[in-house]
Amino acid sequence: MLKWGTLIGPTFLLRVARGMRVQGRWRGRMAGSLERDLDEFVSGIGFELVSMERGGGRRRPLLRLRVDRPDSRPGHSSVTVDDCAAVSRAVREFLEERATGEEQWGLEVSSPGVERPLTRARDYSRFAGEMVRLRGHGPLVGGSRQVVGRLVGLEGDAGREMVVLDVDGERTSVALSAIAKGTLVYEFAG
After folding, report:
1. Which helix (H) or strand (E) holds 51?
2. What CATH number has the domain spanning 11-110?
């Protein structure tokens, strides 16, 4: 069953077969384990797992995956609708092997879109030179919970990384742990 979503970029929705029940509705350690396993699996078929979200309700849980090519550049994702369909089929088979129970699950696979989320520390190094928007758990810079600037990169040791930005010509550092959400900012050619 194919349906088109409203996300920017290719989206593929698939109704997954019976047997997709995971105890605890994918909370806690199971969720982390599933994400790690999916990350490894998706990498093995030539894609990068950008993000995994669980949604839906008790009667119809939904798993949303955003995938990208490991070598993609901002605004130039080479993920096609056919790629999303292929990843959906492969992930469905992978999940069916892990499943227990008789519930029906929905699976949605899409590209990350032009304002790609920055979900891992390595993204802040990979996309150096690009415009980014950071939202914080609390104030980030100058008392504001949001900052937009050109990404310089990532500095510091694991667990104490600092994201370095150029904001209006001034170099600013934000603790990676203080960032609730980071995304690329699409720059229109003009």
Report:
1. strand 48-56
2. 3.30.70
What torsion, rounded to 10 degrees, do the Cα atoms 91, 56, 53, 35 define? -50
What 8-state DSSP symbol labels residue 17?
A: P
Residues 122 and 41 sit within 8 Å (Cβ to Cβ): no
* Domain 11-110 matches domain 121-184 at the CATH topology level: no
Q: CA–CA separation, 122 vs 186, rounded Å?
A: 20
Task: Return the SS3 of 93.
Answer: helix
Share of the chain above pLDDT 70, in %: 77
Q: How far apart are CA 189 and CA 114, in angstroms?
A: 13
CA 155 to CA 161: how far, in whole Å? 6
Domain coordinates of the chain in residue numbers? 11-110, 121-184
**Tally: H helices and E strands in the chain:** 3, 9
| CATH architecture observed for domain 121-184 | Roll (2.30)
pTM > 0.85: yes or no = no
Euclidean distance between CA atoms 169 and 162, whole angstroms: 18
Q: How far apart are CA 87 and CA 46, in angstroms?
A: 10
Using one digit for the tens of pLDDT, what is the confidence trace for 67-108? 999 888 776 668 999 999 999 999 999 988 877 555 567 899
